[in-house]
Design goal:
Shape of chain A: elongated
Shape of chain B: globular
Number of strands of chain A: 10
Largest sheet of chain B: 4 strands, parallel
Strand content of chain B: 5-15%
Oligomer: heterodimer
Order of helices and strands of chain B: EHHEHHEHHEHEHHEHHEHEH
Number of helices of chain B: 13
Radius of gyration of chain A: 26 Å
Strand content of chain A: 5-15%
Structural class of chain A: alpha/beta
Largest sheet of chain A: 6 strands, parallel
Largest interface: A-B, 74 and 73 residues
Helix content of chain B: 40-55%
Number of helices of chain A: 24
Chain lengths: 473, 250
C-alpha cells in the first residue's frame, strides 16, 4: 500500500466543505441536483423491486467479480489470447502515462489528427485529452453530457450523467458560447439537436474512434459498451481505426456472465431496464484496425490492499452517487477527482491519500450506498476504514487530532467525565446567545443548540435511585 | 431478567429524560435494571473520526463496566452499532466479545428479546413521523431499508402500533439520512445542515406534529434545524412514548 499512499502529485488537498458550501448556496442548482438524482434512485427502486431475484443477482454479480479478481492474471491472458486471435492488437499499460503514450503512438504513426471518443472514465483518469491535444490531436467527446463538460472546460461530475449539475439554461449558455446555438433557447430537444449537428461531421472526418469498456469478456476477447445515445457504435464503427481503453478490472470470464451485469447496470444507474445500445466489439472491420489497451494505473496495487480491493468490483453504475444524500447536496465537483460520491471517497484515496484525505469524512456512514450497490461493495465500511488510515498517516488537522486525544482521555475517566459534563451544561446554560452562536461554533450557524437540562441522567440517578436504594437498605 | 442500562454520554448530558424513560420502561416490563455507575461513552466519537486508537481507553472502560450482565440495553442505535460493529480498538478477548454480543438497542431488545407488542399504559394522540436512524436501519436491522428488494418489516412500527391513539404519517423519503452523522455535523456543517433542513421539511410536509426515533442524536440535530426554520415540529424518543409520555396536548 505504501507505494500508492506515498504518491504525491503536488496538487492541493480537496476542500470538500468549501466547494459544497458554494454549491448549497445556489438554491436552484442544489434543489434540481438533489431532485433529479433522487428521481433516478426512485426509478432504480422500481426496477429492482420488479425483479424477484434482484438480491440473488447482486450476490451472483458480486461473486463473479470476486472470482475474477482473485484469478485476474489468468483471465487477462485469456482475454489477450482471444482478442489477438480475433485480429485485435492488444497493448498493456502500467499507468496513465504509458496509456497516453500508446494512444498517441497509434494515432501519430497513422497521421490521425481527429479522435472521436465515447465516454470513458479511464481516459479521464489518465488525463488523456490534454495530453493528445498538446500534441496536435483534436479530441471530441461524443456523449452529450461529456461534450457539455468538455465545452465548458469542466470535468464530469457524475460517472453516468456527467453534466447532471447543470440546468438546461446553463447548457444553453455553454452551447451559445461554443457551438453557436440560441442563448435564449433552453429547450432540451433544441440543445440536443444542436449538439448532434455539431458532432456529426467529426464522426465522418475522424481518423480514429475510441471507447471505454463496460465489460471485457475473457472467453471471447470482446469488449462490451453500453450507451443510450449510440455514440459508442458511431465512434467504434465509423472511423477506420478503433481503440478501446480498458481497466484491467473490467474483465469477466464468460459471455454467460454478461447477462447478470447487463440486467443490473442500467437498472441501477438510470432506473431503465436496459441501455438503448449494448454493443459488442469483436475485431477490426475489413481494412480497419482494432486496438485494446489494458490499463493498470494503480489497480493491481489496490488489488493488494486487504480492506480495499473489493472496490475493484465496481461496474460504474453510479447508483451509490444517486442515493448518496451528501453527494446530492454537495455536487460532483466537491470531490475534486475523476470519481465522485461514495465510490470516489474510497477509490480516490488509493491514487493520492494527501489530496483526497477529506473525502472519507464527506460521508455520514449511512450505508445507503452499500445497499444499492449491485455488486455489493461494502462502501461505507471502507469509508470508515479509510478514516482510520487518513488519521494514522497524519493527514488530519492538528486541532481535530488533539480534540480527539483529549476526548479519548476524558471519556476514559469517569471522574473527569462527570466534571466535564456538569461544567459544560453549566456553561451552556449561563452563556449569552451571542457568545454561543459565534462563527467558531459550526453547530450553531444553521441550527439551534439543545437546551441544557437541570441535571444529567447520572445526577438524577444519584439523587432519585441511589439515594432511594440506600434508604431501603 | 437482569439488564445493565447504558446511557450514552450525550443522552446523559442533554436528554436525561430519555434515560429515565428507558429505565422505567424496562422496569415496568419486569426487568431488574442495573445502572453501572462508572460508565461514560462507547468510544464512537473517536472511532468515527478515524482516531480509533484514542477510543481504546474508553472502550476498555465500557467492557469493564458491562462485563457481568446478560444484557446491556441502550436507548441509542448508533452507540449500539459502534459497540457491535466497531468496538475494535481494545483486545478482542472473550469478555469483549461477550459484551459486544450482548449489547442491544432498546427497540430490538423489546421486540426480539422481551417480544413485547402491547403497551397498555401508553397513549399518544398525535400525528407522528418515524425517523429510523441509518445505524439502526441498515446496521442493526430495525426495518427494511428502502434500497433492498426484501419483504417489509419494521420493529419500531411493530412497537408503536401497540400505543393507543397514535397516527403515523409517512414522509416522501422515509429513510434518507438526516445529516447528523456524528462529528460530520460539525466538520461538514453546510451539507449536514442542508440535509437536516430537507429532512424536517419532508416530515413537516407529511403533516407530522412529532418526530419519533430510537436515536436521540438525529433528533437533536433535526430539532436544531426545525427550530432555526421555525417549523412547529416536536421531537420525542421512542422510549418516552412507549413509557406513557403523552406529549403536549393541543
Amino acid at each position: 500500500m505504501s507505494a500508492v499512499l506515498g504518491k504525491k502529485v503536488g496538487k492541493k488537498s480537496v476542500d470538500h466543505v468549501k466547494i459544497s458550501r458554494e454549491f448549497i448556496a445556489d438554491e436552484p442548482h442544489i434543489a434540481f441536483h438533489d431532485k433529479r438524482l433522487w428521481t433516478l434512485r426512485t426509478l432504480r427502486d422500481g426496477q429492482a423491486n420488479a425483479i424477484p431475484e434482484w438480491e440473488e443477482l447482486r450476490v451472483l454479480a458480486s461473486g463473479i467479480k470476486e472470482h475474477t479478481l482473485t484469478h485476474l492474471a489468468d483471465y487477462l491472458e485469456e482475454f489477450e489470447r482471444n482478442a489477438t486471435a480475433n485480429g485485435v492488437t492488444v497493448h498493456w499499460a502500467k499507468d496513465a502515462a504509458e496509456h497516453n503514450r500508446i494512444v498517441h503512438e497509434i494515432l501519430a504513426t497513422r497521421n490521425v489528427d481527429t479522435l472521436v471518443k465515447s465516454k470513458s472514465m479511464l481516459t479521464e483518469e489518465c488525463d488523456m485529452r490534454p495530453y493528445l491535444e498538446a500534441r496536435g490531436i483534436t479530441v471530441v467527446e461524443t456523449d452529450l453530457g461529456e461534450r457539455i463538460q468538455q465545452l465548458d472546460d469542466e470535468p464530469p461530475t457524475h460517472i453516468v450523467v456527467p453534466a447532471v449539475h447543470k440546468l438546461a439554461t446553463d447548457v444553453a449558455e455553454v452551447f451559445a458560447d461554443t457551438i453557436g446555438t440560441d442563448r435564449n433557447n433552453a429547450d432540451p430537444h433544441y440543445l440536443a439537436e444542436g449538439m448532434r449537428q455539431d458532432t456529426r461531421p467529426y464522426f465522418l472526418k475522424a481518423g480514429a474512434g475510441m471507447t471505454g469498456a463496460n465489460f471485457a469478456i475473457a472467453e471471447t476477447g470482446t469488449v462490451v459498451t453500453c450507451t443510450n445515445e449510440g455514440n459508442a457504435d458511431l465512434s467504434g464503427n465509423v472511423p477506420p481505426l478503433y481503440i478501446a481503453s480498458i481497466g484491467i478490472e473490467k474483465i469477466i470470464p464468460k459471455m454467460e456472465h454478461l447477462g447478470v451485469f447487463i440486467r443490473m447496470l442500467s437498472r441501477s444507474a438510470l432506473g431503465s431496464p436496459i441501455t438503448q445500445y449494448t454493443s459488442h466489439f469483436r475485431g477490426p472491420r475489413d481494412g480497419g484496425e482494432s486496438h485494446y489497451i489494458l490499463v493498470d494505473n494503480g489497480r493491481s496495487e489496490r488489488l493488494a490492499m486487504d480492506d480495499f480491493w473489493y472496490s475493484l468490483k465496481c461496474i460504474r453504475c453510479g447508483a451509490c452517487m444517486n442515493t448518496c444524500p451528501v453527494y446530492r447536496r454537495s455536487g460532483g465537483l466537491s470531490y475534486g477527482g475523476v470519481y465522485a460520491g461514495p465510490i470516489g471517497a474510497i477509490i480516490n484515496p488509493t491514487f493520492d491519500l494527501k489530496k483526497y484525505s477529506a473525502l472519507p469524512f464527506a460521508s455520514t456512514l449511512n450505508g445507503s450506498c452499500t445497499n444499492v450497490c449491485p455488486v455489493k461493495i461494502n462502501i461505507h465500511e471502507q469509508i470508515y476504514k479509510w478514516r482510520q488510515i487518513v488519521v494514522e498517516q497524519g493527514e488530519v488537522s492538528f486541532v481535530k487530532k488533539e480534540a480527539m486525544k483529549m476526548a479519548g482521555k476524558v471519556l476514559a475517566d469517569p471522574k473527569r467525565y462527570r466534571q466535564w459534563t456538569a461544567g459544560t451544561n453549566k456553561a451552556l446554560a449561563g452563556l449569552p446567545r451571542s457568545f454561543l452562536y459565534n462563527p467558531f461554533n459550526a453547530w450553531g450557524k444553521q441550527r439551534e443548540l439543545p437546551e441544557p437540562p437541570k441535571q444529567t441522567f447520572h445526577q438524577w440517578y444519584a439523587a432519585n435511585r441511589q439515594a432511594k436504594e440506600e434508604d431501603e437498605q | 431478567m437482569r439488564v445493565a442500562l447504558f446511557v450514552p454520554c450525550f443522552i446523559d448530558s442533554f436528554f436525561p429524560e430519555v434515560g429515565v424513560a428507558t429505565l422505567e420502561l424496562l422496569e415496568r416490563l419486569g426487568c431488574e435494571v442495573v445502572y453501572p455507575f462508572d460508565q461514560t461513552c462507547c468510544g464512537q466519537p473517536m472511532g468515527n473520526s478515524g482516531c480509533e486508537t484514542d477510543a481504546r481507553a474508553a472502550e476498555a472502560l465500557f467492557v469493564r463496566n458491562f462485563a457481568d450482565y446478560d444484557y446491556v440495553v441502550s436507548p441509542s442505535g448508533s452507540c449500539v452499532h459502534h459497540v457491535r460493529d466497531h468496538l475494535t480498538a481494545v483486545e478482542q478477548d472473550s469478555t469483549t466479545r461477550k459484551v459486544r454480543a450482548s449489547t442491544y438497542e432498546l427497540v430490538e431488545f423489546l421486540h426480539d428479546i422481551l417480544q413485547v407488542r402491547q403497551f397498555p399504559w401508553a397513549e399518544f394522540p398525535h400525528k407522528v413521523g418515524l425517523h429510523n436512524s441509518c445505524g439502526t436501519l441498515r446496521r442493526l436491522g430495525h426495518a427494511k431499508p428502502s434500497e433492498l428488494n426484501v419483504p417489509d418489516w419494521s420493529k419500531p412500527l411493530d412497537l408503536l402500533r401497540g400505543v393507543k391513539g397514535i397516527e403515523l404519517v409517512m414522509p416522501q423519503r422515509p429513510d434518507e439520512c438526516c445529516g447528523f452523522g456524528g462529528t460530520f455535523c460539525v466538520t461538514e456543517e453546510p451539507v449536514s445542515a442542508r440535509m437536516g433542513y430537507d429532512k424536517v421539511r419532508d416530515h413537516s410536509g407529511a403533516g407530522a406534529e412529532y418526530i419519533v426515533s430510537a436515536d436521540m442524536s438525529c433528533l437533536m440535530h433535526q430539532k436544531g434545524c426545525a427550530e432555526r426554520l421555525s417549523l412547529p415540529l416536536k421531537f420525542i424518543h421512542i422510549a418516552q412514548i412507549l413509557n406513557g409520555d403523552q406529549g403536549e396536548m393541543a
